[in-house]
UniProtKB/TrEMBL annotation:
UniProt keyword Transferase present: yes
Domain named Methyltransferase type: residues: 56-148
Annotated source species: Candidatus Omnitrophus magneticus
Top EC class for this record: transferase
Pfam families: Methyltransf_11
Gene Ontology MF term list: S-adenosylmethionine-dependent methyltransferase activity
Domain of life: Bacteria
This protein's UniProt keywords: Methyltransferase, Transferase
UniProt cross-references to Gene3D superfamilies, sorted A to Z: Vaccinia Virus protein VP39 (3.40.50.150)
Protein name (record): Methyltransferase type 11 domain protein
EC number: 2.1.1.-
PANTHER family found in the cross-reference section: METHYLTRANSFERASE
Amino acid sequence: MRSEKNTKIDQDTKMAWEKNWEEKGLPEIMEIFDYPRVSEQMEIFLKYLPRDKRILEGGCGLGPYLIKLKSLGYNIIGIDYNLAPLKEINKYDSSNILFCANVENLPFPDNYFGAYLSLGVIEHFTAGPVKAVKEAFRVLEKNGIFLVKIPRTSIFERISYPLTFLKKNKTIRKFFGKEEKFSYWEQHFDITEISGILKQSGFDILDIIPMDQEHALIAYSSMFRDKLSYDGANKLGIKLAVFCKNFLPWATASDMILICKKK
């Protein structure tokens, strides 16, 4: 695991996220709740998130989960370190409670939230996830729930890695006259590694679930993508994802969700 901070890489990652949110529209993104893989995630969230306590989504971006959960009656607050997506959320629904802040330095008192939702965030810091995880622990009340979704390397990503590397390589892009592309920097953790970080920070791990076989297929090949959707799989992709989930759940998962509780 990387644990040495690189300010330049962190800034490039922030810029990549800012660029990403500029290119997306919230009404379009909200269609994700029709996708099988997102429905599966929502079942997990609804099972563990308390309805009678404050919830934080750290690194909410354009906030589709924030908006959806709020519409279901949850008392949820969103933060992101980019201001632009928060403005877009307010345009969509001005009743949301939002803060522009970094998950490594949260503007909330100790023991303030009953649950914390972190979806693809803590893997993007070059200094490692420890600071963000400890901040989550600090703002959660005793027995508070910490739901953490992080990426993992699926078999499909391993197969396609050489081509992906070439597409992102700055020298190669310059040679072919393509502009430099800011990419999200991220690191992947194995179960032992991330479990150790969470436990050392004071969390009990209730469950770990392999997720997003459907998304792994979409990322691997456009033949599995529904080109009329924002980010959905076609019928072939959905059927193959069901097979993968039933018979090769971990090998084909592009993400995992860790369900944790503050001791």
